[in-house]
Amino acid sequence: MSFKAVIFDFNGTLFNDTDFHNEAWRSFALNHGKIISDEVIEQNIHGSTNREILDFLFEQKLTQQEHILFYEEKEKIYRGILQQFPEKCILAPGAEEFLDLLQLKNIPRTIATASYRPNVEIYFSLFNLNRWFELDQVILDSGEFRGKPYPDMFLAAAQKMNIPISQCLIIEDSLGGVNAAKNAGAAIIIAISSDNNPGKFSQLDFIDQIITDFRQLDLIHNL
What we know:
This protein is an alpha/beta fold.
């Protein structure tokens, strides 16, 4: 397997906060008289942009102001959950070692995430991400990209690094994310199961490896 750069999803990939976000969306939905199932979360929320999620939940196209107000309401719930469990705010198993190795080998890398800038700034502070990434190189939810499985964010990330997407390795944790990587034309696609459910990827034969820990990556031995 050969690649020249790495694109990471963040939530659920480098930071296993899937349960935090799921709980925040459930609480937000309940505040508005709606109940959402695990299936709905997996199929309609993971990998989608804020705008797509909110339009889905309210079953209509919301105004820009409504999107801003509702999403900040949800993110306030999310940040409150993070503050309740600071001991769980750690990078995924093996992530630091892998990022250090990429740094050592001078392999370009960036993040493409459906999170919006205030959250990304918190992550940079919380995890000292500037050890491995440049904030202005991160592709985030600015309202201009379609959500995964559309390839928009990954294509933009490759363009930011000035490296063809066909030479990029992409690491994702959601079904929408790995399909977006495929649609983008990534050289290598790694699925990480942060929810300990690797079976959800088993039917996708285009995935090069399914892992639960970055130390399981086969390609580490060839760097």
